[in-house]
Amino acid sequence: MTIDELKRYNGLNGARAYIAYKSIVYDVTESPLWKNGDHQGTHVAGVDLTSELSNAPHDNEVFEKFAVVGTLEGSEQVLASVQTPKMQEHQRDSYEPFKSKLRTWYKIYHPHPVAVHFPIALHLFSSGMDFLFLMRPKEAYDAGVFYSFFIATVMGFVAMVPGILSWWINYNFVMHRAFVIKLIVAIITLLLGVVAIAIYYENPHAVYEHSLKGILYHVIVLVTGLNVIVLGYFGGKITWGYGKYQTLQEDIKETVSLAKHQNTLSSHSNIQSISILIGGAAGTGIATLEKILSDAFKESGFYIFSTKEYMSRVRGGSNTTLLRISETPLDAPCWEVDISIALDVLALEHMQERWHKNTLVLADESFTEKKNNVVLVAMKESAKKFGSSKYANTYIAGVLFGLLKIEKNSLLQSIAEHFKEDEANKNVADFGYEEGAKLENLTLPNLPKADLEGVKKLHLMDGTTACGFGFLAGGCNMVTSYPMSPSTGVLNFMADMSKHLTIAVEQSEDEIASLHMVLGGWYSGARAMTTTSGGGFALMGEALSLSGMSETPAVIYLAQRPGPATGLPTRSEQGDLNMALYSGHGPFPRVILAPGSLRECIEYGYLAFELADKYQVPVIVLSDQYLADSISMIENVDFSSYEQRRYFVKSSENYVRYEDTETGISPRAIPGFGEGLICAVGDEHDERGQITEDYKMREKMVAKRARKSDALTLEAVAPEVVGEGDIAIIGWGSTRGVILESLQHLSNPRLAHVHFGWVHPLEPQQLKSLERFKYKVVVENNADGAFANQLKLHDIQIDKQILQSNGFNFFVDQLSVMIEKSVKELS
Amino acid sequence: MSSLFDRENVDVAWCHGCGNLGILKLIKEILEELEVDKKTSVIVSGIGQAAKTPYYIDTNMFGVLHGRALPVATAIKLGNPNLCVVAEGGDGDMYGEGGNHFIHTIRRNVGIVHIVHNNMVYGLTKGQASPTSPKGFVTKVQVGGVVNEPFNPLAVALSLKAGFVSRVNIGDAKHAKEVLKSAFLHHGYALIDILQPCPTFNKTNTYHWFKENSYVLNDSYDSSDFVGALQKAFEFSPMPLGVIYQDKSNRDIFERSIRGVDAKPLHAMSHDVSKIQDLFNSL
Ligand SMILES: Cc1ncc(C[n+]2csc(CCOP(=O)(O)OP(=O)(O)O)c2C)c(N)n1
Ligand code: SF4
Questions:
Q1: Cβ–Cβ of A671/B83 closer than 8 Å?
Q2: The pTM is what?
Q3: What pLDDT sits at residue A268?
Q4: Which A residues in the span 87-116 are in contact with B, Cβ-Cβ below 8 Å?
Q5: For A631-668, how does the pLDDT look when each residue is reduced to its tens digit (9 = 90+)?
Q6: Which CATH number fits domain B19-281: 3.60.20.10, 3.40.50.970, 1.10.760.10, 2.60.40.10?
Q7: Per-residue DSSP letters for A109-160?
Q8: Helix residue spans in A747-779 (DSSP H)
Q9: How many domains does chain A have?
């Protein structure tokens, strides 16, 4: 059954209700919990629930009682599922920010578990006393029973309040069996408690009598004892799950909810979007204009994507910023643009290549003479009228909004925000707006529909910032780096964050020192990272190897730019995969993660620290200039779901650093925490950390380090597959958004997108899923096809490669053509 | 004599008569006399004969790569300012391969003891010239003798305003101990360059030669006089021994400047998630 077929079984209007979980399709029609295809308001039938269930309070054991009706084709564990309006509605929970705060608070103080032990213990005590009383009716026992029972009942009520609160904030009042049973039993216990207390109050002597009341009293006391056992049992289930012993491995994966990406390859052709290219020399204020416009467009309810290309110089040259606005979320740039704004003469020339026949060009009257598509505006003149040439940018922003007939308040608001000190800007923009509105007889692109509600909930940021938040989520508290574009943004971000959080930041003397400091940091118990680009990473090879031998964790943020050598310092390429894979002498396990969206930046940033700590290996987060500098939108992220774990142990007196264990992972202790001594070493060593050349010990240690790879590989996040076609368009890292949109444009049912964010080590079982594709095309922004070569090493046949290495990222319109051509040649 | 800091079952890889043996003994004695807690002290060393010292001392250690002890030690101190951190290695290790780190660690004024075994030769790689080898020193590589000017660690350290700069000769263990002790007690970065004979590969700078070519600074020497210290640093025949310069002004030290005065070890801290959430939500 395909995802589309599954959609028909939504349980509505008499249809049967099917759901899919981990590739298996179950019939849930008969379940009272799935009336009309709706599962307690949290899930709907007719979809693949694999990804959603990563958050459910239960695992697949709940499906065991349902009939299996088939398997789901093309589904992956982390396959993007189809988003239904119903689900969107659920995500729009207006209490969410409040709940999120409460969740954090709850995580720290866990009031329910704190409170609930009193009534449980007291009820059991009371039942026990009652047994004694029934055997030997003494006054002391009678009093013991009653007092403990009374307090137990009161405390039971006290414990229920935070319990229900937790049910709301952590589980969204989901009507799962465990919660329902707990609620019913708790209420019964409370009511019975009141009855028993009433009996005693009315006549304390009744408990000695064989009357109805006397018997009822004892029955209640004994039954409530049983009740609290049931309550405790299901409480445990909610906290610990039903599964067997859950390994940490599953834990990490679960926190990383990459599967929540919701994407389809549904046709994109009827979706309105406008692309605006702004060109000018460095120092002409492009960045300010970009910021003003993005905020204003966002305020107006448009989805935004923006990216820049710039020369490696601080002033002059010719740089551009591309801004796209749309009625649905966007995550890719285009080459040809609808509107082109030149801030100087050079820009006019520089941007020409990117005009199509209807591109509307806005330029100052002094730049050029009137041509077909060029609209001359009095940028300089008007700015001067307001007293300074610096107002040209605000003026043109006004013209643009007037021209597009977008409500001007959002622009004025954004301008007021940016120029708090200089109010004149508002008047300039207002003036520009009127001028723009006056321009007539222009072929304008259709304005996208605004989605105020949808856009309001999103955050606008670049890949740099998102990676930074990922590293914070991962608990990073030490950063030692040497500046190098395009990685410096993360260094700046972390330094800025050190004003709010405890993060030790030091600019090292060189990259050799950077990574060695990271190792020193981890040795002492910090969560340390460095940021760099290709040339700097080349200097880190030696320390990377030390990380491998000494089994000291390390996190490296490697933002790529085109090489060799200094190459193109401010431009983009995916050219350093081979270096990331092979740098450092001697074999040792490592992890390479290449995020392809803001969400992946956060999740992989977090994951990097978890994996490094747990497996004591270096983890490289591979970004590039394009991803780092592109701004797009991301839904709210709940940071309390990223648990900051620590994997080091407290050492005992006879601790040895390199204990030979089954998994190859030796418990890592740190100096000053525990009774033992920590001897970490870069020479080959024995378990104690003493230098050895004993060949048997060498073999043992080589095998131990290699063994870590086995478990590590199992952590791999499966590639994301979108679409059901038999031709796979495979990409990794920053190409995610652009491939996805290209395929949406092509809307060829034979195509599917396979995105690898987890690049190394590749997991053979996951690669098996590629077998279902008849053809495989790999898209990479480099000249050596390094990732395709990795796939080939795993016996995956690659039919075509689309490569580019001109310093740009891929553009949707260009890539669509390249993919179409490749596909034509294949079939 | 046995020491609290003896490590059991170790196979010492040094030649008979090597100056390293004396330095090892010295360090263990000082750690014991100063009642240093072995659980909260760390020795970081690079690669070379000298860099093997911490393998024979019963305390925490991180044996890193050739020339790289200083950045590792720096970050350990940053991660946990409560640890007593020592960086140790040979002259090739610290002044050659790790030269850049030497400069910048001094600039940072990291609160570590920096012990350099200066035998004026590369021991582990069997006898090539080191940055401190004297001119004319003949080796299998420098077949016509060393032509480069020897590196002057004391002058370099002083020019970077190191707070504690000293040189001793392991041939005079009693004096060496006194100076090394004050290096441990100094607040901030402390350099101790220890003249160490290598009887196997350096037939020029022997115990006898070091004795003949050095003298101990007497009590009248004012180690707080910076200009005088600079002058002393350039004296060669004979070389002055002792604390050449000490800045007792309690200058800011690196880890305290970055982490604050009562900084907790980073391993005991984690971020307040609600703060991260707020910062994110503000975008
Ligand atoms: C990157 C690197 N280059 C070269 C070496 C080889 N090597 C090991 S020790 C050493 C020099 C040792 O001299 P020194 O630091 O003075 O210590 P000694 O052995 O004399 O005590 C060299 C060149 C190495 N281990 N690593
Ligand atoms: S080679 Fe020189 S420095 Fe090394 S142990 Fe032998 S004598 Fe000592």
A1: yes
A2: 0.79
A3: 63
A4: 97, 100-101, 104-105, 107
A5: 999 999 999 999 888 899 999 999 999 999 999 999 99
A6: 3.40.50.970
A7: H-HHHHHHHHHHHHHHHHHHHHHHHHHS--HHHHHHHHHHHHHHHHHHHHHH
A8: 764-768
A9: 6
